[in-house]
Structure prediction request, 770 residues.
Amino acid sequence: MTRAKRRTRAPGQALPQPRARTGAERDSSPTPAERHVERIVLAHGGGGELTNRLVAERIVSRLGRPAGPLTDGVLLRALSATWADAKGNGGAAGRQPLVFTTDSYVVTPIEFPGGDIGRLAVAGTVNDLAAMGARPLAISLGLILEEGLTVDSLDRIVASIAATSEQAGAPVVTGDTKVIERRGDPPGMFINTAGIGVLHPRSQLGLDRVEAGDVILINGGLAEHGLAVLSRRAGIGFETTLRSDVMPLWGMTRRLLECGASVHFMRDATRGGLAGVLADICDATGLSIEIDERRLPVSPAARGAAEMLGLDPLAVANEGKLVCVVAAAGATRALAALRAGPEGTHAAMIGRVHRAAPPLVELVTLGGGRRIVQRPYGEDLPRIC
Amino acid sequence: MTRAKRRTRAPGQALPQPRARTGAERDSSPTPAERHVERIVLAHGGGGELTNRLVAERIVSRLGRPAGPLTDGVLLRALSATWADAKGNGGAAGRQPLVFTTDSYVVTPIEFPGGDIGRLAVAGTVNDLAAMGARPLAISLGLILEEGLTVDSLDRIVASIAATSEQAGAPVVTGDTKVIERRGDPPGMFINTAGIGVLHPRSQLGLDRVEAGDVILINGGLAEHGLAVLSRRAGIGFETTLRSDVMPLWGMTRRLLECGASVHFMRDATRGGLAGVLADICDATGLSIEIDERRLPVSPAARGAAEMLGLDPLAVANEGKLVCVVAAAGATRALAALRAGPEGTHAAMIGRVHRAAPPLVELVTLGGGRRIVQRPYGEDLPRIC
Prediction:
């Protein structure tokens, strides 16, 4: 079950106010009488506590899924494909299990510097498979078009889907197109992609494999997707040279899995940013993480834009960044594997896992101080993926 | 590639008027200068000629997919699972290829007599797999919730998804939840489901297998889904005892495949109704079809509602009806297989395939006359699935 993707509000929008409750009620679940008037608010999609509760209590648990940390996809052990790729490489590995994932994309605007909703929909699902250690085999494409969308816009998005699919080696094999009544201005679209991948024979990933002493790597500059989208949002727009980092990452991921390093866990740092992924790791493992601000790749343009908007680059969405947790012994090799292609030119070792209670993510600042990095509540950003 | 699902307008809504063109222009593609102002209209989702052109010319062809009739899903021969079901039945068949399909659901209202968008989303994808001759193995669930939706509504829809998934033997294994800004009243939701199924060992289905002499069967009463949804649409509502027929059909489909009849083709008769499926068969095969009005299962309630609304029950959407084309030799056995369970109590042989030019669907009326049944243009119905 993919973690709920973070959908938040634009700065300046009023926050939805929870109904006042007495102290005794504050932490209890709503009574039936309360519940029928409770409504979904944008923060339910914000990736924070409200999202986690909604997905865990009202969706996942009721669909008969096992409890536990949500991942970007599911391993289907009874289903398989031969690992061999189109060139026949890897055939000796025999049949490998499949991975299945899905994601919907509702970004506004549908085109932004460095990408568009079509590229996002393909790259996002490819990256969810990659983070599970799986090579993409097939993508489904569900288009929901809003009445009034120009055919030219549709053409550009479809061309972008085709190009990204080609780049990622992930063919779109099945699809569906719907049209809904116009409601927004300008009219847009929503896209759902589901993906089937085949598990890399060397992939042995899991939050349960993360250990004290492991090293945290990331493949480049933070926050560029979220800030690039923000720069085009109505009411927020600003001039910047920033471009979204949206990019399919299977090629890089494969290099990493084959470099000889012991890779323990990967996740793409989308909504919630790096901070969200690191908080999830600490929550699930009971271990702590220390990251070093001097080593964090943040471009001057991203730093400037984040400062202007009062945002923390650690909490802003990326769409081409993979957080990798690897055993210390092979970390240098892993870093070289990330850097060996265009997806990882600015890859860096940014921190390490250690044993300390309570489990926390701490940032060692440029000045040598320490601050705790929290999971964003989900109110910092407008919807950006 | 799933055929585009039909999205149309409510009776009384103004039709979008195409720009006037000169006679010479009428059948030509738009020039670049025209195209940039062309916009998506609801009829692009209506399942008619406009939909076919949009999907074929602007989407499928640009994604590098082969031309040809679109089916409800795609067969992935390199991917496989053992056919054996949870009870171990069928293990001797060994590994079988997988089928992959996707569909988005945008019905308004989200709850209607006999069902809701959640049941629709699970049954619809299960039925697309079933029509391809595949047993459902795994479903993905992409929820797009509109701000303002009550938590009680969400709870009911999720419970319905869980119940339908259980009924269909199709577990929801991965998912994603997004929240979008409120735009409609009442606030609703969209759902995408993708499904993976395993091909039944006896499944040998295809439009190329349809032959003159084949018999057409359907598993029960027509038009009940579309009319039940219409009965609750704002501005159209009327009192009726009709309930949607939305129902997962894998169990019935399996009985059919295992009954010994030679099954040549199946498709669920959703938007576009029976008329749309039969027109697709004629278009693809170059054969003609004759159906007998006396044998068409249409309940008195459905007939009355369709008459009141001026709709043809043949063109109204179903969500639990499978059109089956079988060899004449085993047709009686096939009919018995359909009738052997609750999905097919009112199953009937309704017509036959024959060789006649031009390829047409003809209805032999109650009075003994003949009328040509056309693919609905897609303007007859409000959005109903």
